[in-house]
Amino acid sequence: MTSSWQDPYIRNDEEQALAAWAEQLASRFATRAERHDREGSFPFENFAELREAGYLKITVPKRYGGDELSLYNLVQLQERLAYGDGSTALAVGWHIGQVLHFRSSGKWQEPLFAELCRSIVSDGKMINTFASEAASGSPSRGGRPETIAVRTDGGWRITGRKTFSTLSPILDRFVVTAYVPDENCPGEFLVERTERVSIVETWDTLGMRATGSHDVVLDEVFVGEDRRIAGKAEDDGGGWLLHIPACYIGIARAARDYALEFARTYRPNTLSEPISSLPTVRHTIGEMEVELRTARALLYEAAERWDRERSRRPSLRPELGLAKYASVNSAIRIVDLAMRIVGGGSLSRRSPLERYYRDVRAGLHNPPMDNVVLQLLTDSALGEAVATTPPSA
């Protein structure tokens, strides 16, 4: 990390120490990011370091040996991790975010959740939920899974194919959504990786190339009765999904800092001072600051409210969605402005800006998508109580 910016969203010494910890990891990941992006390879060494550092257990409850960090802390850490490597941050974000979700919602029955948490703490295991499919699209759109769970002695046999399966190269267990014909409804099942599970390496994308989001194929995989996720879930508003905008803001900050350093130091032979003295460049820097500071304010306010207002979490969904919408769209704008400052050199594969440009666009396709957020905000506005006296024309 090269930024010396005093972060207004660090509230105490403990958070300062957490931030420094994540920045050290990010600095090492940054040295490998270009190679893994170019190769489209999974950064196993980054995840070995995350495991060794204890990062994988940051959202595990303290009663199981975890750190039980807040959503606000998760956002702080993920933003910094993405500053070094967006792909690694987004991928690990699904793990730590889902553990936070399981913790806050009670979605998993306690014995199964306890087993998961202990395996994370003692063995560095990870988890993700594979729900997307080619035919049904994103699960946030409400499509019925084509993956089928058929009842058999002692459990189910599950057959299907999942897309966008982030972390698939490293997981030995994962959750899948599947349609249960006998019940005419979908269910969630914890699947162990066996010879009946295969990974098809389909992940060859424009951005976020090192997340390992390949297809996962299940061929009559047996899942025991106690491996169906059947806890009494509490609606937590989806706050855990803020790991996504935190990641894209981290990438945007890296692009902004790169452009600032370039502006401070680059002096063409037509000028007596660096280009940071030019009014047009200074104006562009100001535009970047508006985007970054506005998005971060929304992001951290949403996280803090989710932590503080537990009983109101379901009603915070529009604000949480707004934080994601603003962060991703601002990140795209910030990287674009940074490239305008740096000029044509930013298009080079040797420039990190070229990778940042591709990576931030992936945020448009992470949930909740823009049109979903806009609908949430529209419904919220239309649902407000009508004033007894309408405003005068």
Automatic annotation (TrEMBL):
<dbReference type="InterPro" id="IPR036250">
    <property type="entry name" value="AcylCo_DH-like_C"/>
</dbReference>
<dbReference type="InterPro" id="IPR013107">
    <property type="entry name" value="Acyl-CoA_DH_C"/>
</dbReference>
<feature type="domain" description="Acyl-CoA dehydrogenase/oxidase N-terminal">
    <location>
        <begin position="13"/>
        <end position="99"/>
    </location>
</feature>
<dbReference type="GO" id="GO:0003995">
    <property type="term" value="F:acyl-CoA dehydrogenase activity"/>
</dbReference>
<dbReference type="Pfam" id="PF02770">
    <property type="entry name" value="Acyl-CoA_dh_M"/>
</dbReference>
<dbReference type="InterPro" id="IPR006091">
    <property type="entry name" value="Acyl-CoA_Oxase/DH_mid-dom"/>
</dbReference>
<dbReference type="Pfam" id="PF08028">
    <property type="entry name" value="Acyl-CoA_dh_2"/>
</dbReference>
<dbReference type="Pfam" id="PF02771">
    <property type="entry name" value="Acyl-CoA_dh_N"/>
</dbReference>
<keyword id="KW-0285">Flavoprotein</keyword>
<dbReference type="InterPro" id="IPR009100">
    <property type="entry name" value="AcylCoA_DH/oxidase_NM_dom_sf"/>
</dbReference>
<dbReference type="InterPro" id="IPR013786">
    <property type="entry name" value="AcylCoA_DH/ox_N"/>
</dbReference>
<dbReference type="InterPro" id="IPR037069">
    <property type="entry name" value="AcylCoA_DH/ox_N_sf"/>
</dbReference>
<dbReference type="InterPro" id="IPR046373">
    <property type="entry name" value="Acyl-CoA_Oxase/DH_mid-dom_sf"/>
</dbReference>
<feature type="domain" description="Acyl-CoA oxidase/dehydrogenase middle">
    <location>
        <begin position="131"/>
        <end position="221"/>
    </location>
</feature>
<feature type="domain" description="Acyl-CoA dehydrogenase C-terminal">
    <location>
        <begin position="245"/>
        <end position="363"/>
    </location>
</feature>
<keyword id="KW-0560">Oxidoreductase</keyword>
<dbReference type="GO" id="GO:0050660">
    <property type="term" value="F:flavin adenine dinucleotide binding"/>
</dbReference>
<protein>
    <submittedName>
        <fullName>Alkylation response protein AidB-like acyl-CoA dehydrogenase</fullName>
    </submittedName>
</protein>
